[in-house]
Amino acid sequence: MTSATTFLFFAIHLACIRAGNSPETFVKLECKEEYHGVYGQQSLLQCNVKAVENVTILTVTWKRVEADPLLLEYHKDTSNLTPGFTFAEPSWNKDNMNVSLLLTKTKMADKGVYECMVRTDSGDDTATTSLSVTAKYITPTLSSIPETNIKENTDVTIFCNSTGGHQKGLIWWFDQDGYNWTRRAELVAKETDDGLFSLSSKFIVLKATSSYTNYTCKVLNVNGAVEGKASFVIQLAPQVSGTCCRKKCLSSLLKITPPVISFQVITLGWTLKRCKVCLNDVYPLTLLRTAPTCM
């Protein structure tokens, strides 16, 4: 083998080695495949640059695969950020290999596949990750028609409302003994502009009585898990105080057998003082004076 042939052989061999160790293979972008976010909270999409040697980042971009505009772009020491999206580390710079994306307030519209691209002075790489978003229903609120001073044996309509779920949920009704009345309730579910759901349920208590005044509604998600509950007490009208007090006062009087009139008057005065609030509304004074004669 001539010296020229030998030189050519080594030159080709060296070129092959260099090609096999291209700078492109020196940089790798590693991202977790899937993340779960919660509506209204922060979401973190973690991606890190792995390199066999120290590198300097030249460009970073983040975008949703389903959308064209960039959510975040860093190039030549300048960052362009879409409101609500930023680097996970506020003091991020080109020597920081953590290029994770932070969503400051997650929305339902943020779910999807995200793509991150990194270009360095030793090569570049691209990786994708996906974000799913869930939302929980808030604690329900209850109201009724009529609202207060409800007479016994009156039909009462109770309303239970909740919002915030990311899928259509359910509302169940229970009485104070735990009996499930859901079959007699009406449920309306609507999707709101922000991609969440609102639930409204109506339950009619037939001929409400003082024996059963406490009812509970529970909000369940699509998987059947309870996400919120609240109780409601039907506001029945108070009983006429005179009727109750009259019974108590007359009962006290009937137990008295005064030996003399003076003692009778004293006893009546004590009874009147104890019940004067309600008796003033029920008995005229002349009747009160003659009440002891009923004993």
Automatic annotation (TrEMBL):
Domain Ig-like: start-end pairs: 23-132, 140-233
Cited InterPro entries: Ig-like_dom, Ig-like_dom_sf, Ig-like_fold, Ig_sub, Ig_V-set, Immunoglobulin_dom, T-cell_Activation_Regulation
Any Pfam family hit: ig
Protease recorded as keyword: no
Main localization category: membrane
UniProt KW keywords: Cell membrane, Disulfide bond, Glycoprotein, Immunoglobulin domain, Membrane, Receptor, Signal, Transmembrane, Transmembrane helix
Keyword Cell cycle: no
Gene Ontology terms describing biological process: cell surface receptor signaling pathway; cellular response to lipopolysaccharide; immune response; negative regulation of T cell proliferation; positive regulation of T cell proliferation; T cell costimulation
Signal peptide, first to last residue: 1-19
Cellular component aspect of the GO annotation: external side of plasma membrane
Protein name per its UniProtKB record: Ig-like domain-containing protein
Organism: Oncorhynchus mykiss
Lineage of the organism: Eukaryota, Metazoa, Chordata, Craniata, Vertebrata
